[in-house]
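Holo prediction. Input below; ligand is NAP.
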Amino acid sequence: MTNEPIRVGVLGPGRIVRRVMKDFHAGQGYTLAAVASRSLERARQAAAEYGAPLAFGSYEELAACEAVDLVYIAVPHPFHCPLALQMMAAGKHVLCEKPMALNEKETRAMADCARDKGVFLMEAMWTRCFPAMKKMVSLVKGGAIGKVNHVYAVFTASSNYDPASRAFDPALGGGALLDIGVYPLMAATQLLGWQVESVQGACEYAPSGVDMRLAAQLKFPGGATAQIMGGMDACGPSHLLVYGAEGCITMENFWHPDAFTLFGRDGRRETYAFRPENEGFHHEFEEAARCIREGLHESPLMTWEESVAVSRITEKLRREANILYPGE
Ligand SMILES: NC(=O)c1ccc[n+]([C@@H]2O[C@H](COP(=O)([O-])OP(=O)(O)OC[C@H]3O[C@@H](n4cnc5c(N)ncnc54)[C@H](OP(=O)(O)O)[C@@H]3O)[C@@H](O)[C@H]2O)c1
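Structure of the complex:
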């Protein structure tokens, strides 16, 4: 185990990286070492803006850089798998933006590669690393609302249709399910387990053929159920409701939460409030750095097995809705 800060290299400085960097330097145990872009000019600009000592005009140079331990992959979904494989083959640990990959085969290949190379790999489901989410999950797992029987979760966004946007472009893995629907789905699998008994979806399409909105219901072994929805044309709060036999938990904007309320069967009502977050992405970098320092290859908060299982579910929902990406 090393006490040195984990040196992070950012791959693909686009929109999400701009948000991530708002809090990046607030985290402990890691440091920004490099930025790599397909354009040296963009890499230099981003490195200067975000405070990285190194800038590379190709992703290959990042893979070869000895001053980088962990590569944060922040490119559109279809490039997650090939770039993660490339980085891990070069011995880098990888924190990969969600969704881990386009489909089950790719996600499994990434997990297999991490195992073969003995490196850390984590899907960047940042939500799970928030103090409010960790507290809520520990209360639920500790029986605070009894047996969890139903999870209801929605992630809403109100985006204008734009065929040039990554979110609507099939060639860039567009569609509501992979962009935002994975949050409610993974809220359900975190609380109810990733082995689902059945899943059925219903979807509305964007003019480009990807899902504008996708809702699904799931049944889990042991009888629990879940309803989830990710909608790019749905305006309103993104709620998580966890219904137990002895109480309920409500969490608003659960994808980056700072509070939740527990309602007991006995009429008790308790609100748990945490320090409001700016963006809050530093929590996932702290988690990745902690795991790497402790010699772990996966985080208990987001295991490879669950990433593979979730990509199996999203692939099933997509195939049934006839949403296939180039090459599938
Ligand atoms: N955790 C979250 O809350 C969150 C939020 C938004 C997005 N995400 C995830 O982050 C990933 C990136 O999303 P984003 O919105 O940041 O994407 P983006 O801005 O469209 O693209 C990010 C960067 O990817 C690089 N890139 C490499 N190959 C590309 C290609 N063929 N086409 C376009 N860009 C390419 C580009 O950087 P260079 O050319 O400079 O290398 C680009 O700036 C997605 O997988 C998304 O699901 C996560």
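The pocket of NAP is lined by residues 12-16, 37-39, 42, 74-77, 79, 97-98, 124, 126, 166, 179 (CB under 6 Å). That is the main takeaway for now.
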